[in-house]
Design goal:
- This protein is mainly β.
- The chain has two domains: about 300 residues, Kelch-type beta propeller (Neuraminidase, 6 Propeller), CATH 2.120.10.80; about 50 residues.
- It is about 10% helix and about 35% strand.
- The protein is built from one helix and 30 strands.
- A five-stranded mixed sheet has the order 20-24-23-22-21, with no helix packed on it. A five-stranded mixed sheet has the order 25-29-28-27-26, with no helix packed on it. The chain has a four-stranded antiparallel sheet with strand order 1-2-5-7, with no helix packed on it.
- The chain is globular.
Length: about 375
């Protein structure tokens, strides 16, 4: 059941140990501080899901448009960073899953300005957060073990989309940024294009641009992005501005080629959904909450499941099965053509015919020679007379 859930957007969500934890958000312009999780260790249908409310009695700070990541040896800590009107000591908050305790750690830097509509990426207990400030495209990194912040200059090719983008860790060495907008949610502003994407190299602390190919989708922000590592594929979901023809797009992270995946049936959210949760759980993409308006109105608490168990042959479903497995990707095998087979057969027949003909010829000549010798008493050859 989800009777306590509001129609909301901008929630921070993260998957840890078969539980999706949700914190904060906004509902019809009201900022929220609720904290709950969805248990995905057992089967369920989307009309009746195993939600558990764990909001502390003493309450939590209201937090919206923030980001959440897990870290620690067992990924047993959730760190929440930034958000609308979240500065100072509350800029970072940590929930320890093991002992079910909250803390507001003292870090090396006290941020006094908002960083919102951001995404964090974790690599070896270093947490990277890009942008979040209008037209300010810097990168900040938190050493989660020592709680030290480091700021990096943006460089000449950092993405212009500093809010509402998606960030995906690839090969534990690079972060791929897709979409976003410069801040302010002004529809006439330029958005980050999808034909050239920005990559941040963690090891070299540098930016680069990769050119994409294929069915390149129009620019968007406030979208969802789900990485399916077994397929080397990122699915880009919905977002703003509305794209009627390409609400869901696939990017191959090996050759950076865009394609339109096949979805076998109708379903899913209404076109134009933005600022929603999208998380890969097993062989499903779970989509929850969101809005159709940036100001916090016209929010929703609808839920959807996209079955991605077969690559590029997806379908909307109403039930979740945690035991379902990804299907093996079929390999392409080149078979000899019918023409080749026919030619090979003809060649073999010709060779066999020639061989039999040669043998028959030898037999006839040998038989003739024997008959001549028997009749004339000498072999059939000429010997010149001796002088």
């Amino acid at each position: 059941m989800h009777l306590f859930l509001h129609r909301e957007q901008n929630k921070a969500a993260v998957l840890v140990n078969n539980k999706i934890y949700f914190y904060g958000g906004i509902s019809e312009k009201t900022r929220l501080s609720d904290f709950f999780y969805l248990d995905v260790s057992t089967s369920f249908i989307i009309t009746s899901m195993p939600w558990v409310n764990i909001t502390p009695i003493m309450g939590l700070p209201m937090r919206t448009s923030s980001t959440a990541c897990t870290y620690g040896e067992d990924k047993n800590r959730i760190i929440y960073i930034g958000g609308s009107k979240i500065v100072g000591d509350n800029f970072t908050a940590i929930f320890d899953i093991t002992n079910q305790q909250w803390s507001t750690p003292k870090t090396s830097k006290n941020f006094t300005t908002n960083r919102l509509l951001i995404q964090c990426v974790v690599s070896n207990n270093d947490i990277y957060v890009y942008g979040g400030l209008k037209n300010i495209n810097d990168m900040i990194k938190l050493d989660a073990l020592n709680l030290n912040w480091t700021e990096f200059s943006p460089g000449p090719v950092a993405p212009i989309g500093v809010q509402g983008y998606s960030a995906t860790l690839i090969n534990n060495s690079s972060i791929l940024y897709i979409g976003g907008q410069p801040g302010g949610d002004v529809q006439t502003l330029p958005y980050s294009s999808f034909d050239k994407l920005s990559i941040y190299n963690i090891n070299n602390v540098s930016w680069s641009i990769v050119t994409t190919s294929g069915d390149i989708p129009p620019s968007r922000y406030d979208h969802g992005a789900v990485f399916i590592p077994q397929y080397n594929q990122i699915l880009i979901l919905y977002g703003f501005p509305i794209s009627l023809s390409m609400p869901i797009m696939a990017l191959d992270t090996v050759n950076f080629e865009w394609s339109i995946p096949t979805i076998k049936n109708a379903g899913g959210p209404t076109i134009g959904l933005r600022r929603f949760t999208s998380i890969l759980i097993g062989t499903y993409i779970f989509i929850a909450f969101g809005s159709f308006n940036a100001s916090g109105i016209n929010s929703t608490n609808n839920f959807f499941l996209l079955d991605v168990s077969q690559k590029n042959n997806y379908q909307w479903v109403a039930s979740y099965d945690p035991t379902k497995q990804l299907q093996p990707i079929p390999t392409t095998t080149t078979m000899p053509s019918a023409t080749s087979n026919s030619s090979q057969s003809n060649n073999v027949s010709s060779i066999i015919g020639i061989a039999f003909g040669a043998i028959a010829g030898i037999i006839i000549l040998s038989t003739s020679a024997i008959l001549i010798i028997k009749k004339y008493g000498y072999p059939l050859y000429y010997s010149a007379p001796k002088e």
